[in-house]
Amino acid sequence: xxxxxxxxxxxxxxxxxxxxxxxxxxxxxxxxxxxxxxxxxxxxxxxxxxxxxxxxxxxxxxxxxxxxxxxxxxxxxxxxxxxxxxxxxxxxxxxxxxxxxxxxxxx
Length: 107
Prior knowledge:
Layout: E1 3-11, E2 16-23, E3 26-30, H1 34-50, H2 55-79, H3 88-103
Antiparallel strand pairs: 1-2, 2-3
Helix pairs in contact: 2-3
């Protein structure tokens, strides 16, 4: 069995974050619970701090801010005059995606 990380993204149908892996030609999605995410981030934090890779803190801050802001925008879009902008959270997500790429040096 060969498990390879593919991506982290948002499942709009389930309104959940997922982590996608490929395994022997099949695609697997894992929908982690908050406790599992907390464990992963805590371990990553300790690992990166120990290897001088502190720039990942900015990446995690951006990622958490994006999740909170997208959730807020979806709620606002349903209940306010912003209803005319149903994809506002998607546009904000594009901005955060660019910030993550800048943080990791991809852009």
